[in-house]
Amino acid sequence: MILSGSAATPAPTPAPVLRSKPSEPDFSAPHENPVRRNDRQLLIRIARVAMLNFGLEPDIPPEALEEVTVIQHASVHPRVDAECRDLRDSCWVSIDNDDSRDLNQLTLGEALPNCGIRILVAIADVDQRVPKGSSIDLHARHNTTSVYTPAILFPMVPEALSTDLTSLDQDEDRIAIVVEMGFEADGRMVSSALYSALVRNHAKLAYRSVAVWLEGEAPPPPGVAGSPRIEESLHLQDALARRLCALRHREGALTLETPEPHAVFQNDALAHLDLDPTNRARQIIEEFMVAANGVTATFLAEKRFPSLRRVLRSPERWNRIVDLAARYGLTLPDTADSKALESFLSLRHTVDPDHFPDLSLAVVKLIGRGEYVVELPGGTSPGHFGLAVENYSHSTAPNRRYPDLITQRLLKAALSNSAIPYTSTELDELARHCTEREQDATKVERRTRKSAAAALLSDRIGTLFDALVTGASVKGVWVRTFLPSVEGQLVKGGETLDVGDRVRVKLVLADPERGFIDFVREPA
After folding, report:
1. What structural domains does the chain harbor?
2. How far apart are CA 143 and CA 127, in angstroms?
3. What is the pLDDT of residues 378-393, one digit of tens each?
4. Peptide bond between residue 315 and the one before it cis (omega within 30 degrees of 0)
5. Which of 210, 215, 449, 490 sees the fewest Cβ atoms within 10 Å?
6. pLDDT tens digits along 129-154
7. From the CB of residue 166, how many other CB atoms can be counted at a distance below 10 Å?
8. What is residue 286's DSSP assignment?
């Protein structure tokens, strides 16, 4: 919550030592007419400079754009044959953010005998339009991910493709890779298959409107209303997703809530930072993507193909997580144990849901980063600690993530009994590159979010906030305020603090140009 400044004049305190030089690349390039600049233009400029400083390409290269033009003018007619099923009449829908235009997957649910459920996930066939080694592919390979900043999106695949020809747009026929999964009534997966199919998106839906309908708080959204088949399919998906979620958490998948704020503009002025909390519609997509990614990894292993796995090793700072749990009167084992950690998190979510995102953030920081590794035939990867799964790849967002496009090419080769499109050496290099580039993209996104937050707070110098310590090292201490949810450096008073501590802080600097937000610790 925001704590307003006291009406009484506080006792004088020593002036904090504010940062005079940036600890990251200097983004303070001069701009024209700073008095009349708008927030959107400022944040776009900062984002472009950030992309360059972290080694990413903000613009699609000219040769890639030329290829896009050729693709747009080429007549490609989807072919239905023995290797490509025609599933256009099935009640496929997409569920994504309100403003998403690069639609990567569709889902549908069908009832089976004995209360079973069949779930199908259709994944956009991006490789069909972006062949390996093309100029478009080389740009995607360089960045490895779409980069989302408050005022501008830098797409991995040119928007003329990712929001059109390789997007599973409503009322368009598209080739897709389908992951079919059969589940028992209790949520146990009993069958799976992968194949190519021609699909059609019958309703472009959004998380929020689907969620409030599923929760009985609103009528069916457009696209669902008036379609009993889609309505039944979504209810089946919702019921199964909740069972799958419960099963995974019993196995040690971690209950975490870490919504990232996104900027909301009124014209070109930054109005506020909005949060998209977890809801039942998001849970549908999350659960089925986890399941589909597991099926993909298992399929490649059975075909004796290498695969690019997404792994999260045991927490880097488990001892600190143990200390964090002890503050709440709970004891965790000395060695990392996902089931024990999940029991602690689930309890805290029940006891104090309002502050659970703060605890989640602290745990996420202490667990560490995920990475990509290559698993060769017969090998074993470390698995994913946070999801409590051993076989896991990224395959469901090939318009947005390069590892998913790599996996798609491996899948298509395995399905057609073709040669493996990558050597082991090339996959090892790509795994390292994708991990590093993901971290670079995260730095760009974090950097631009800081500038957006600083712009929002620039007229609130001296305001008091409650905050959570999110980082503590020799480089400094960082805190995140609760409302609005922004992160900044604690430039005074953080000597004894560690991740997970709660503090009261005062805002002393908000510099959008450099993305600096500085706080000093205030007495509790």
Report:
1. 50-312+369-449 (no CATH), 458-524 (2.40.50.140)
2. 17
3. 988 889 999 989 899 9
4. no
5. 215
6. 999 999 999 999 999 999 999 999 99
7. 26
8. H
